[in-house]
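Ticket #4471: complex job returned nothing on first submit. Input attached below:
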Amino acid sequence: MSTVKLTVNGKAVSVDVEDRTLLVHLLRENLNLTGTHVGCDTSQCGACVVHIDGRAVKSCTVLAGQAAGSNVTTIEGISKGDELHPMQAAFRDNHGLQCGYCTPGMIMSAIDIVQRYGGELDEATVRHELEGNICRCTGYHNIVKAVLDAAGRMKVAQAAE
Amino acid sequence: MGIEGIGASVVRKEDRRFITGKGRYVDDIKLVGMTYAQFIRSPHAHAKVKSIDSSEALKKPGVIAVLTGQELVDDKIGNLICGWAITSKDGSPMKMGAWPAMAPEIVRFVGQAVAVVIAETKNQARDAAEAVVVDYEELPAVPDIKAAIKPGAPQLHPEAPGNVVYDWHLGDEAAVKDAFSKAANVVTLDLTNNRLVPNAMEPRSAVADYDAAEEHFTLYTTSQNPHVARLVLSAFYNIAPEHKLRVIAPDVGGGFGSKIYIYPEEMVALWASKKVGRPVKWTGDRTEAFLTDAHGRDHVSKAELAFDKDNKILGLRVKTHANFGAYMSLFSAAVPTYLYATLLSGQYVIPAIYAEVIGVYTNTTPVDAYRGAGRPEASYLIERMMETAARQLKVDPTELRKKNFITQFPYQTPVIMAYDTGDFHASIDAAMKAIDYAGFPARKAKAKADGKLRGIGVSCYIEACGIAPSKAVGSLGAGVGLWESAEVRVNPVGTIEILTGSHSHGQGHETTFCQIIAERLGVPISQVSIVHGDTDKVQFGMGTYGSRSIAVGGAAIVKAMEKVESKAKKIAAHALEASENDIVIENGEFKVTGTDKSIALPMVALAAYTAHNLPDGMEPGLKETAFYDPTNFTFPAGAYICELEVDPTTGKTSFVNFVAADDFGRLINPMIVAGQVHGGLAQGIGQALLEGAVYDSNGQPVTASFMDYTMPRADDLPSFQISHTTTLCPGNPLGVKGCGEAGAIGASAAVINAITDAIGNNKLEMPATPDRVWHTIHG
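Support reply: We reran it on our side without changes. The output follows.
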């Protein structure tokens, strides 16, 4: 057992976990942040994507101990109170989700994509960048639409700040 | 239509919880004192279980129990059932071997459970499972259809000689023979419909909680039909009587058929919860999903199509072998028979059809309904045949189809189905226009100049949704009725709850069903909520599969609403001192037509519950129930056209365009319908290009993770161009047909027809991987 100290969604936390514990299990089992999902055992599906120090990471591929001292943001931490993150709103408005299981990971990956490309995105780039997130419901059509829509919204939001 | 009524693309009410991480899936549930289950599974495709030694495992930290299949037998827990009985052509009933939830003696597929560890934590259960020593004696295995029917093949079940479950047929053999004897041309094709793994993104999970004081079980489970689960667990598996078992299917992360069935793990979790006196959670990992979720498709067929000299179809003869895997899953028997052969007429006038289906056992994961279930196999077969025929007869494939389209409705096919309505010319014309079919030869020539092989492929599918009526499916061997229930509760202040036996696991019922109410009453959908997925709340229902939710479940809501409205009108008429026949409902108000007198819904509801001033003899309250049993299936149909390019140097396929023109009858929420089409197309394209479950010659699954089984990714798929043509379904009060499976049914033939057009060779099987396409081009 080890004590892992990290910041999750802006709050400092200290958790005692077995050394083999993965970050996704720390989030789900110890912190009850069940929005981050597990969809595979091989780091393929991306349902577990969170941000570590601002970068999208598959939390099933990181030991909890490796995240010590870092700043982790999960799907529960991206809206400001009742105000949705532009990516969340874009997924809803474009019907970019059906069963909702892959959605948190999709949204966390998509935010990172838009941030990395500075909002200058096209369909082919979005499709290529989403390669690490699997969705079985939507055929990706509306997810791609949502990400492109959100890229515009995030640019506007950034300009306004 | 109001802004939130029928036909409005309202954004989904349920989305907020999913996009904020507040969805509540089974694995998110934690109960006080909960323990964790880890199954010990067979590494062999076929073996005798000689002994199970759990002595070391029981010494491991946190271990509470190690339970085996023999203890299930000792406790008289029933074997798994197949709920649809098929009779072979010789009149004998289908031949089934027993399927115990954990095998006490013989394992018949890799992944079959033999024991389970219950421990304090998931890691402790996993560690202990590795310490359970199972001594197996390997037996020769049957990996596929060809091996199963070979003379002298290893036998899976003594009940099924030759590994044959049934040898079934449908249609008029003599009439087909006669048709072929008169034929000017005969087209023949051997076809394989590849085995698929459903892979809903949420793995299956169960949390079972036994309350000893009340002798009552609660099961949270990833189910598409919690009431059917309770029925089967009670009536056949002896878990508990129905009133002592509550089944809850909360948010469920996709199903596609794979979550219809009641699997061994849910049964064992319930039983183990009573054994250990604590709640038990089991959540499968992805490899367990590959090994134990019911697979789909897996047909090998020979098809022959006879034409007269004018290219009119005279007859169709089909012989199909269907792989059931090692055991008969819940609805498996119906899939390659009544859900397959009955659709072989496609969109065409085919005077004579004869189909033989031989269902066989193999040492592989059980196979059952997966998105489309039988209908994709039928549609793929007839649409590959039509395209191949057009090439052989040297006519345009769209012209050959149009020449043979059914145009008069209702139309009785020679294989049971009576199509109620449709306009197949309208959908193919819409698709051809959308893709600029006329301009294709010029585009092909240009691609050729660039060194690419361009192809175009058409697929005109028809399917049957909302399997019904119950009397008819009963006569075909179904063990259940296929109606749906709805209860409409108008609360005393006018808000409304709809209780439905349908289950939403991504389909958007919480929005669509509210729109039906908004349309009828003129109230905002925010005043309406949908209750589903809990056997303690909803009395009974048949769940969601076969694109039945709107056509059957939605129609049941309409029927219950009619009763509510009738009573509410009587109350309103009484309050307004008017005739009931003069009351109309608009914008949430009950109005006396032709006057300015009205009373709002909340006041009518309040009057119903205060009961101070009701018409003489009327019972208080405003709540009604309806059980709706349709008169027929519904028949969604459409035309898909795919244009793509093949790189002859690599065999790689790239989409140029994919258009879909579907007729789903009336659309309640076009945005949600489009989403259903997109998802279905992705699965159909996945089957055509990427997906396929592979077993080696010993029955070892080679594709048991996302590393080995190619799931469609965003960059494998095009954006889709979809549109709708409309003929209203006459069989239900909404005029709806269902849209959940169409894409998966129609897409694969369009893709393969396009590739075979591009490469000029009809002999291509799915998945058409670059390797397979390259070898087909270069030999």
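Residues 86-160 of chain A form a domain with the DNA polymerase; domain 1 fold (CATH 1.10.150.120). Closing as resolved unless it happens again.
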